[in-house]
Amino acid sequence: MTAAQPTDGPLVDRYGRVARDLRVSLTDKCNLRCTYCMPAEGLPWLAGPQLLTDAEIVRLVRVAVRDLGVTEVRFTGGEPLIRPGLVGIVTEVAALEPRPRISLTTNGIGLARLAPTLRAAGLDRVNVSLDTLDAGRFTRLTRRDRLADVLAGLAGATAAGLTPVKVNTVLMRGVNDDEAPALLRFALDHGYELRFIEQMPLDAQHGWDRAAMVTAEEILAALRTTFDLRPDSAERGAAPAETWLVDGGPARVGVIASVTRPFCGDCDRTRLTADGQVRACLFATEESDLRGALRAGADDAEIARRWRTAMWGKRAGHGIDDPTFLQPARPMSAIGG
Ligand code: SAM
Ligand code: SF4
User: Fold this and answer.
1) pTM
2) CA distances from 190 to 105, 193, 194 (A)
3) Which ligand sits closest to the CA of 30?
């Protein structure tokens, strides 16, 4: 542990981790209702004045990349493609010095249309969430009949050069856990990089059950019924996914085992919610209010100071397996996944 909080430089914490990867939630709203994320009726959305404006988002990202050492910016939500100012925000962030790498995590709806514009604005790549290839299942899982739009979005992302296109998949027992090999075959055939994400206790309904979740071990066993998987020797660094070479490579598949093999010791994330709160972790129970500071007239140096203080307090780990674990008050869709 380090003793004293630095007053300048990057976002370090007392365990020596440095946050270089900023996740920005652009909205808590969504056009799907994935059962592991939101209830059918949606959630009490943030009111307009609570949301950061486009200019406030760009200003905070500027402070992050210029003064705090952030090199990667990922836009997420909710569903970031439904934020009206998205293209303008990407354009302005791409013009920052030093220019960060810019990516987007999306459910893919509308991406077919928007991909070329986003690419031209400076977006580097996308992660698209897709949990099933079966239209009926998709409709049950997301409560919307939109599989065709997501598949078109994936194809559009590749055509626009938002590559490598990564696909995020959450498996749920008895729902889509028999689809792991088919999803990998689909990804290999289309040149997408598939990453399975263990289901986490971040749903608004608090329906997560450790005993029922599909574990990384189970996912790998299911894939090995069809594919030869060898550990990928590439340096993992702060990447959350452990990757395997499929059938000798070069294609790879990843598993993000946040629950059963936590990677908190290597975490390099800092998060900004759509209403301007900094979170040191998805599972943090504390937030630091940068919107209030901005609107009270704080200068960039004061914003940077508050952000450093928020990250200094980052906990060593998320503690999901700790008997005292408390799910954060905000669900994943309101934090930014
Ligand atoms: N709407 C966009 C999307 O679905 O990609 C971006 C936001 S969503 C919250 C980001 C990612 O979080 C998605 O890949 C989604 O599957 C994942 N996710 C949502 N709830 C989750 C949960 N309880 N456990 C694990 N992953 C979850
Ligand atoms: Fe929307 Fe993404 Fe949550 Fe699904 S996972 S409901 S697409 S925010």
Assistant:
1) 0.96
2) 19, 9, 11
3) 2
pLDDT reported for residue 235: 67
Grade residue 319 by pLDDT with cuts at 50, 70 and 90.
Answer: confident
> For ligand 1, atom 15, which residue shows the shortest CA distance?
129
What is the Cα gyration radius of the chain? Answer: 19
User: What is the average pLDDT across 79-107?
Assistant: 98
Distance of alpha carbon 259 from the chain centroid: 15
Using CA of residue 206, residue 207, residue 211, residue 212, what is the dihedral sign? Answer: negative
| Domains of the chain, start order | 14-335 (3.20.20.70)
Residues 269-300 have pLDDT tens digits of 999 999 999 999 988 888 999 999 999 999 99
What does the alpha-carbon distance between residue 110 and residue 122 come to, in Å, rounded to a whole number? Answer: 18
Q: Which ligand 2 atom minimizes the distance to the CA of 38?
A: 6
| CA gap 27, 188 in Å, rounded | 32
* Residue 19, both tokens: 């946050």
Over residues 111-139, mean pLDDT: 98
CB of 203 within 6 A of ligand 1: the answer is yes
19 Cα to the center of ligand 1, angstroms: 21
Pocket of ligand 2 contains residue 34 by CB under 6 Å:
yes
Residue 2 has a pLDDT of 56
- Assign 3-class secondary structure to the chain: CCCCCCCCCCEECCCCCEECEEEEECCCCCCCCCCCCCCCCCCCCCCHHHCCCHHHHHHHHHHHHHHCCCCEEEEECCCHHHCCCHHHHHHHHHCCCCCCEEEEEECCCCHHHHHHHHHHHCCCEEEEECCCCCHHHHHHHHCCCCHHHHHHHHHHHHHHCCCCCEEEECCCCCCCCCCHHHHHHHHHHHCCEEEEECCCCCCCCCCCCCCCCCCHHHHHHHHHCCCCEEECCCCCCCCCCEEEEECCCCCEEEEECCCCCCCHHHCCEEEECCCCEEECCCCCCCCEEHHHHHHCCCCHHHHHHHHHHHHHCCCCCCCCCCCCCCCCCCCHHHHCC
